[in-house]
Amino acid sequence: MNPEENKIQAKKIVVAIDGHSSCGKSTIARDLAKAVNYKYIDSGAMYRAVTLYCIENGLFEGNRLDEETLKEKIQQIHITFKHNQTTGKSDTFLGDRNIEKEIRSMAVAEKVSPVAAVGFVRQALVRQQQAMGIDKGIVMDGRDIGTIVFPDAELKIFVTARPEIRAKRRQAELSAKGETITIEEVLRNLETRDLIDSTRKDGPLRKADDAITFDNSDMTIEEQNRRMQDIFKQYATY
Ligand code: DC
What we know:
Layout: H1 3-10, E1 14-19, H2 25-36, E2 39-42, H3 43-56, E3 60-61, E4 64-65, H4 67-73, E5 79-83, E6 90-94, E7 97-98, H5 100-103, H6 106-116, H7 119-132, E8 138-142, H8 145-149, E9 155-160, H9 163-176, H10 183-199, E10 212-215, H11 221-236
Parallel strand pairs: 1-8, 1-9, 2-8, 9-10
Antiparallel strand pairs: 3-4, 5-6, 6-7
Helix pairs in contact: 2-11, 3-6, 3-7, 6-10, 9-10
The structure holds 2'-deoxycytidine-5'-monophosphate.
């Protein structure tokens, strides 16, 4: 191990990355975790997994969610992450099933905000997220990571980007997966999710007072990674 790595090992920290939908949080978090050899957890994938469970088990009647049944079932919903050798990324599992592809669909995106607004869902997932960070050396992204999940995180980042940039990025992501959708539809979905995420009672999306704002509207991925690693080094080493 070189001395630089040694320093990072010496002071493992928790990195909390929050921000609006589709502003690149996951890419930032995943790339940072890889560069510094930390664990990466996509907390949004957990809310998406619960949403997929609700859709597949008939807990949605139109847009109405059967919270009573979900409350009975929530402890039986087992979400885990496993490294995928082929993609080099981590895949989300619901029980034994790899659901990585399904949870990224528009069908799930359209229903996830009401699920993520349910108090007992948040309590259950926040508890699991906190357990994952007990040994530190973790980068987690979401909406309430710096405020609720890890209020004592050593490094908090609040990512933002202009709405039209976010919509374009999301459209490209969906189109790479074969989903064709207009920019207006994407923008509408992003704005609706942001509104529900920011105004809900439990764990609303808001910038923690001690978070660093990171606007990546005009940054390339390489630039954003370089800047993030520079910030990280100021907090993880001494
Ligand atoms: O980051 P994402 O778009 O995959 O998140 C999916 C949804 O889950 C998003 O609409 C808000 C919600 N979410 C949340 O409420 N709290 C988190 N920590 C992460 C995501």
